[in-house]
Amino acid sequence: MRPRTLNFHGIGTPAPAVDPGERPYWIDIDLFADVIENFPDWSHHRPLYITFDDGNLSDLEIAAPILAARGLSARFFVLTGRLEMPNYLSAKDVIELHKMGFSIGSHGHSHVDWSTLSPNGLVEELCQSRTRLSDILNCQIAEAAIPFGNYNRTVLRALKAAGYTTVWTSDGGGMDPNAFLRPRTSIKGDMSIETVRQILLSKPNPARELRRAIAKTRKRIF
Ligand SMILES: [Zn+2]
Questions:
Q1: Range of 86's domain?
Q2: What is the pLDDT, as a whole number, of residue 213?
Q3: Separation of 183 CA from ligand 1 center, angstroms?
């Protein structure tokens, strides 16, 4: 079966300042622990990848130790505009995650919909965040995750021009682990462990795969 990627955001209880639009993507620690507990078993059925968006402090305080205890790798996509803010990662935390062996990528600077930005705005979001992370870690940043999963042809061109080699979307479904664009499935707070299992282990549904392929092609063309 084709690999799939689980995308997480915050784990635990979101702080009062967290945007209402982001709250549904926060999940209980118990659900996260359950998913990770089942992960080795599910991975026997299909290759699975793990990513995190937004750079919440729970990446380091909750997720990283649980992943490390199981020897699992993950990618953390950080919003550089939120570094050092309360309840978000600091530059020091990003270094810590990197030292633990996790991969760090860019989620942009200020969590805006890239498909609505001007060419200059895009350069700012994509290049500024990349440079900041490169400076913090003293290494090249090759991967990005698109905020809200919203992209179009202009966004993809700007990502390539900025030098990213791998870009993670939220299109769902199976992925080619060598492709430039890699779809992910976001885990939400109202999902049960059974729902997650079904999403990850379900056989491809031809009608759904076709709808996804059409939607993705549209985003690439327009
Ligand atoms: Zn995000």
A1: 4-221
A2: 76
A3: 14
